[in-house]
Amino acid sequence: MNESLIARPAVLALELAAGETPDRLELTRDEAQTLAGLIADDLRALLPGVEASRLAVAGALFDGVELLRPGFPVFATLEELARRVPRVTTAGGVVAFGTHEGRMPAQPLVPDPAYAGGPMRLIPWMLLAPADLADELAERMEVELVGRGEAGAATADFLMRTLGMRLEHARFLSRDDLMALTCVQYEHVNLAPLWTMLEAALLTPYKEETALGSRGLPLRYLEGRVGVPPIAQWFARAGNKGTNPAHELAGTLFELRQYAALLAAHHVPLHLEGDIAGTVGFLVEPVADPDPAQPAPVLYAHEAAGLGMAAITVAQPIPGKARVLAHGYPLAPDALAPLLDALAGSYGTASEVHALGRILLDADGALSAPAPALH
What we know:
This protein is α+β, with helices and mostly antiparallel strands and 375 residues long. The chain has three domains: 2-175, no CATH class; 187-272, no CATH class; 282-355, no CATH class. Helix content is 35%, strand content 24%. The strands form three sheets. The chain has a five-stranded mixed sheet with strand order 3-2-4-1-5, sandwiched between helices. It has a five-stranded mixed sheet with strand order 10-13-12-11-14. Strands 6-7-8-9 form a four-stranded mixed sheet. It is elongated, with a radius of gyration of 26 Å. The N and C termini lie far apart (85 Å).
């Protein structure tokens, strides 16, 4: 019977009042079961006939980035657990999962406190519908939930009392509604190209997808990861340099940091084309091998307002023109020290970093390094 049920995932979206935070991110098993019963009452009013489907609720409060990850691991785990419950042998029924002795039944159902600061929390739920009803139910969910899917007063009151918070709204959304809402949010802050990459990772992971960042940086999704071209090479060759190339490159690096942070939150790896995808929070762009006949390589820090150390260049300070060996780009707040260690280890530099106080470009617009004067 379980195998013939089709999952229709959704969320209960909680919009917190200004300045409010929940006392905790997880419900106990008993609390989750109470909440599931209240949700079932609400859904019976919104979706007549829903009793033919099984309702499964995860008693945990997530951020959107945690739910919209490749393979939808939170929903996949909830579905797997719901299908396993032995006492529910028919399509209908209500099952809920919360903590027992302080632990959720599976790790994917544990919210990450790092994402707990947003103004909206999401409680995942799904309907496991008989195959002959699943398509019609999905269509009704798309229409009814977004149109009139406000949770009942009893549901909202229970959550506010149990979690010690005030809510502005509590609304049911299908997972597709959640994706559409996230798309609009990212477009509103000029991150539409990023959503193109994420949508591919979520819905068509087997297909290639491309987009251009707002400053022209090419993005390519392929085989589960997002690639960008070697930054300095691309900018020198094809970047929009305007009247102030250093300022334009700083803007591109700022945008890349935004992309990197959100891709990491959604668990989509970022890499330089031709290199492996890493999870260390920085990118390294090799340029040339060291020349053993020349001075030892040195680390130079390019700096820009709002970015701090925007990029690190490894170069041999050859009189007349430095020999650039590599560029490193710290993308995460805690990535600078590991990046410096990686560059020093790879190129045998001293640990000292020479701050340039600006972004230094050569005549072609490529990241460069100072060179000693010719005598």
